[in-house]
Amino acid sequence: MITVAAGADIADDWIAERITASDCCVTNDIPLASRCLTKGARALSPTGHIWTPDNIGSALAGRELSRHLRELGVGGGGPSPLTKTEKSKLLSALDTAVQALLRGK
Question: Could you tell me the pTM of the whole model?
Answer without folding.
Answer: 0.84
